Amino acid sequence: MRVLGKGKTALAIKDIYNNVNLYDDKDLNIYDKDSDELTVVSPGIPPSNNIVINTKNCISDYDLFLTNIYNKEQKDIFSIWISGTNGKTTTTQMCEHLLKNNNFIAAGNIGLPLAKAYNTNKNLILETSSFTLHYTKYAKPNIYILLPISEDHISWHGNFEEYEQSKLKPIYSLQEGEIAIIPQKYENIKTDGFLITYKDSKDLSSKLDIDINKINFKEPFLLDALLALSIQKILFDNINYNSINSFIQDKHKLEEFKDRNNMVWVDDSKATNIDATIQAIKTYKDKTIHLILGGDDKGASLDPLFEIIKQNNITIYSIGKNKDKIIKLSNDNNIKSFLCHDIKTAVMQIKSQYNINNNEIAILSPAAASLDQYRSYKHRGEDFKENVQI
């Protein structure tokens, strides 16, 4: 068996199987392009990669562990897959929080790699990326949770349609008795599974008979909580409001804090696409917003974001790889903006503009990935906090 990639996913597979060879771009000259051997593609490698293009039999690690394509005897493991553009990490974590006493473990994009989680003999809650779904051919979930889909990872997939179809792929493969909870937009998808569709949080709570007033979270995390509770109700006919309300949200997601001058700031560094930033703006739409934008937008159009920005009282501070693009869009839309290059400069500029007596708030919600300037969105968020407290 071959594995493309030499990162966490690939190394976890190699730990389990002895007859695994790992390859990356540097190995193209020794790579057998004519081989029909099963080849697991690590999720970070795009389909445009030369070594992928020269591979005949690509599968995902989901195919490897959740079907008998390679293993003759397959473990009887129940799997819940959670995907969508925003909220899948929080929904997965909430779901694990609710089901940890029912022999479930979170894996996939978060927690253990699937290879290691598979060997725990626990049932699986898998945060599932569009990258993994692109390469998945045979595996399917028992329950599929799909959060709303908006533009993201366009440079990886090539276009929005391919990105969207990757997210929808598991629905088509569901069998009788299996369930998907999906946005109402996709209610006409043909599947042998049972579909529960939702328009918004209120609609979902009504359909699953969940009392929204007993949940402490506000949007966008309210929808995540409802989806996690929906899984608990479907599996065990139980809704544990106390348990979901005890869940502690990760850092860097609409995380409010104050500086020494009592100015209010929000670390939303996890907002790596425009939809996440739109949600942040909606959360604080009643305030005057100082918004730090920019980074690697992954080829997505920023036009929908600027349509929302125009409707609110927002000043933009542009940073990162697409900073000039942001300034141009700001000028085109008559939005006040500052070219700041980096977070330190943006924070200093905001402090010079911020009026603490004027219902104002400062938000890092970049609508972009962080790798153009940082190791991760977490690194970006910590740098933001440090500069605010200077």
Using brief descriptors, characterize the structure shown.
single chain; 390 residues; UDP-N-acetylmuramoyl-L-alanine:D-glutamate ligase; 3 domains; six-stranded parallel beta sheet; six-stranded mixed beta sheet; 18% strand; globular
Quick summary:
By secondary structure, this protein is α/β, with parallel strands linked by helices.
Fold and architecture overview:
With 390 residues, the protein is an alpha/beta fold. The protein has 3 domains: 58 residues, no CATH class; 167 residues, Mur-like, catalytic domain (UDP-N-acetylmuramoyl-L-alanine:D-glutamate ligase); 134 residues, Protein-Tyrosine Phosphatase, Chain A (Alpha-Beta Complex), CATH 3.90.190. The chain contains 16 helices and 16 strands. Strands 6-7-5-8-9-10 form a 6-stranded parallel beta sheet, with helices on both faces. The protein has a 6-stranded mixed beta sheet with strand order 11-12-16-13-14-15, sandwiched between helices. Helix 15 crosses helix 16.
How do the helices and strands line up, and which of them pair or pack?
Blueprint: E1 2-4, H1 8-16, E2 21-23, E3 39-41, H2 50-53, E4 58-59, H3 61-66, E5 79-83, H4 88-99, E6 104-108, H5 114-118, E7 123-127, H6 130-135, E8 143-146, H7 154-157, H8 160-173, E9 179-183, E10 194-198, H9 201-207, H10 221-236, H11 241-245, E11 255-258, E12 264-267, H12 274-283, E13 288-293, H13 303-310, E14 314-319, H14 323-332, E15 337-341, H15 343-353, E16 360-364, H16 377-388
Parallel strand pairs: 1-2, 1-3, 3-4, 5-7, 5-8, 6-7, 8-9, 9-10, 12-16, 13-14, 13-16, 14-15
Antiparallel strand pairs: 11-12
